[in-house]
């Protein structure tokens, strides 16, 4: 089996996480991937410098994850505070490139953000480079030494930049928001967010807030509540109401559901599909969601999906597992989270941390109960009552 080595720099925790996600996705597609994270904790016994040099020297295929920091390492300008592994790798790779001559069949540059193509070193600038979100099938094809396993989408688009300093309206749930925001900006390998939680843990409110953020980005979005067990025809009717300005009428034919997939392949802008209360979905809707939408999502590089519920589709049993991030909502028990919420959303600044801890204890940190309780408390305080 071909050995694939990923050479990259530790620009940030977020960057490390998305490189690891790329490695896991490639492994899910049956490739043998070597990563420095496999040597943790403790690191390799031979030391990072020797280990890095050996991987760069002997790997049959090398993906160079290009960023501004990686270019600095390539040029011998080690960024302050960054581990030196990429510098050792770059020095070996440059020697290997010189030795191989005109035909460079062992390495290819990869970028997460198309603007990073500007940082591709001059010596390899003539090689075909890959933009991950768009070209993943081609990456797999090159690593396997065969033609791409999937055709590129006919549509083309630019992912929007995240909204700086966006006002997130919920108490906590910031990690879930950050994950989804990265998906909508094309910065994440994953494009499916699964959100599990018990009753009154704020799942529906989270999806509503994710919908509002998507609208602020001016992207098409449909949020479908599966409560009431809608039929597939009713589901497609709801999708039509939400997306009729973005997709042609034939896309919403429930009798030919794969037409929607075909039209989603032709997108000229990213699009988000949010499904709430999955536990109430009918069998036909569950089958459509798992096998005719999520199962084709790898062919739909512009589609981001979120599903919430007390029960969820099981990615481990499905081929779309490598595109999935799962989160479980639990009670919010930090007083500071609720104090921020009361101050920013309810316009009240008189509650103390001690007051809030008492309220949290009474409501067990349950977001649904806490929201109702806090609204009542704030109304009474503004009317002149005391706690």
Plain-language structure description:
It is a single chain. The protein is α/β, with parallel strands linked by helices and 387 residues long. 40% of the residues lie in helices and 13% in strands. The protein contains 13 helices and ten strands. The chain has helices spanning 13-28, 48-58, 68-74, 85-100, 132-144, 174-184, 203-216, 232-243, 258-264, 283-293, 335-345, 353-363, 367-382; strands at 3-7, 32-34, 61-65, 107-111, 130-131, 192-197, 221-225, 271-276, 303-309, 324-329. The strands form two sheets. The chain has a five-stranded parallel sheet, with helices on both faces. Helix 10 (283-293) links the parallel strand 8 (271-276) and strand 9.
Give a short overview.
This protein is α/β, with parallel strands linked by helices and 387 residues long.
Secondary structure topology:
Layout: E1 3-7, H1 13-28, E2 32-34, H2 48-58, E3 61-65, H3 68-74, H4 85-100, E4 107-111, E5 130-131, H5 132-144, H6 174-184, E6 192-197, H7 203-216, E7 221-225, H8 232-243, H9 258-264, E8 271-276, H10 283-293, E9 303-309, E10 324-329, H11 335-345, H12 353-363, H13 367-382
Parallel strand pairs: 1-2, 1-3, 3-4, 4-5, 6-9, 6-10, 7-8, 8-9
Helix pairs in contact: 2-4, 6-7, 11-12
């Amino acid at each position: 089996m071909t050995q694939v080595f990923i050479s990259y720099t530790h620009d940030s925790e977020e960057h490390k996480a998305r490189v690891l996600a790329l490695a896991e996705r490639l492994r899910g597609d049956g490739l043998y991937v070597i990563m420095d994270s496999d040597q943790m904790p403790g690191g390799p016994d031979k030391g990072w410098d020797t280990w890095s040099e050996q991987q760069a020297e002997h790997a049959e295929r090398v993906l160079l994850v290009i960023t501004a920091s990686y270019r600095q390492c390539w040029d011998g300008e080690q960024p302050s505070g960054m581990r030196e592994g990429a510098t050792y790798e770059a020095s070996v790779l440059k020697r290997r490139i010189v030795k191989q001559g005109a035909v460079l069949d062992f390495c290819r540059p990869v970028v997460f953000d198309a603007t990073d193509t500007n940082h591709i070193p001059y010596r390899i600038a003539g090689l075909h480079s890959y933009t991950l979100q768009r070209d993943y099938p081609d990456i797999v094809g090159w690593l396997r030494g065969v033609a791409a396993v999937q055709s590129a989408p006919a549509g083309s688009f630019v992912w929007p930049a995240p909204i700086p300093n966006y006002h997130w309206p919920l108490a906590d749930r910031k990690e879930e928001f950050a994950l989804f925001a990265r998906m909508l900006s094309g910065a994440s390998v994953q494009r499916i967010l699964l959100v599990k939680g018990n009753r009154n843990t704020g799942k529906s409110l989270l999806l509503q807030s994710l919908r509002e953020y998507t609208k602020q980005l001016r992207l098409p979005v449909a949020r479908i509540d599966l409560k009431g067990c809608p039929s597939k025809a009713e589901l497609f009717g709801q999708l039509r109401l939400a997306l009729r300005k973005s997709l042609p009428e034939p896309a919403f034919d429930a009798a030919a559901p794969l037409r929607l997939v075909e039209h989603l392949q032709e997108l000229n802008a990213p699009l988000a599909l949010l499904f709430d209360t999955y536990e109430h979905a009918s069998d036909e809707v569950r089958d459509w969601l798992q096998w005719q939408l999520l199962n084709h999502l790898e062919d739909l590089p512009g589609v981001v999906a979120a599903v919430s519920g007390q029960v969820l589709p099981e990615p481990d049993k499905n081929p779309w597992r490598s595109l999935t991030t799962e989160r479980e909502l639990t009670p919010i028990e930090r007083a500071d989270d609720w104090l921020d919420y009361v101050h920013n959303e309810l316009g009240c600044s008189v509650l103390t941390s001690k007051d809030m801890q008492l309220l949290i204890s009474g409501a067990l940190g349950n977001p649904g109960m806490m929201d109702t309780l806090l609204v009542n408390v704030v109304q009474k305080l503004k009317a002149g009552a005391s706690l």
